[in-house]
C-alpha cells in the first residue's frame, strides 16, 4: 500500500527539494580540495559544503524509487546517509568526480531501506535477490509488455532468470511476493461479516503448566549460555556479544574487523569457531542434565 504524506510533510519535502536544487555546483578542483580538507583535517565546514552541493543528486536518485510506496522524505534521508558514507570514504587523491563515487553509495542506501520497509516480510538479502527485486518489473515490461498484475509466462521466467543469473524458482517466489502484497489479519473475510482472518488462527500459546516448565528451562539455558560464552577467549566474546547479543545495533563483520584490527573474513572465521565452541558446551551440559534425570528413576 502506498504511503501518502500529509500536507505539512509534502510542503516540507518540497521546500527541501527546492533548496537542494538551488545549491551551487562545484568545480572539480574545489570539490577535491573540500574532500582533502575533510579527509586530512576533519574540516566540518568543508564537509558540509561538499555534501550540500550534492543533495540534488540524492533527490534525483530517491525520486526513482518513489513507486515502491514509501515516503519520499524517508527515501531522501536514507540517500543522505549514503551521501555521508561516500564523503567519509572518498579518496580525493584518485581525482575522480565525487558525484560518480557518491551515486553508488546513495543508491545502495536507498535500496537497503526499500528492502527493509517495502514489506513486513523480508524480501531478500543476497546480491542476486536485490537485483531481482529492483529489476523484475522493468524486465517484465521489456520481455512481455505485461501489466504488473499479470502472471509471467514460463518463457518470461526463463529469460529473467538467465539475464539476472538466478534460479527460476527465485523469480517465481519474488513475483508472488510483489504481486501479493501484505494483508492485515484484522481484515474482515467478506464484506457482509465482522469475522476477521485472525479469528480463525489456532492459538499456539502454551498452557499454564508449559509456561512454568518453560520459564525454568529458559533460566537454565540462559545460565548455560552465559557460562559457555565466559569460556571463550576475549576476542571471541567481543564478536559473539556484538554480533549475536546486541539488540540495539546491527554490527557488521567489517565494523568489528576495524575495531579488532583484523579482516572481516577473519572475524567471520572467529565467529564460526566461537559458535562451534558454544554449541559443544551446550550439548555437553544437555547430556549431563539428561543423565542426571535418568539417575533419579
Describe this structure in words.
By secondary structure, this protein is an all-alpha fold. Among the domains are: 7-117, Four Helix Bundle (Hemerythrin (Met), subunit A), CATH 1.20.120.1810; 208-294, Winged helix-like DNA-binding domain superfamily/Winged helix DNA-binding domain (Arc Repressor Mutant, subunit A). Helix content is 67%, strand content 0%. The chain is built from 13 helices and no strands. It has helices at 7-21, 28-41, 44-52, 55-63, 72-89, 98-117, 127-144, 154-164, 168-180, 208-230, 234-244, 253-260, 264-294. Helix 4 (55-63) crosses helix 5, helix 4 (55-63) crosses helix 6 (98-117) and helix 8 (154-164) packs across helix 9 (168-180). It starts with 6 loop residues before the first helix and ends with a helix. Mean pLDDT is 77; it is low at 292-297.
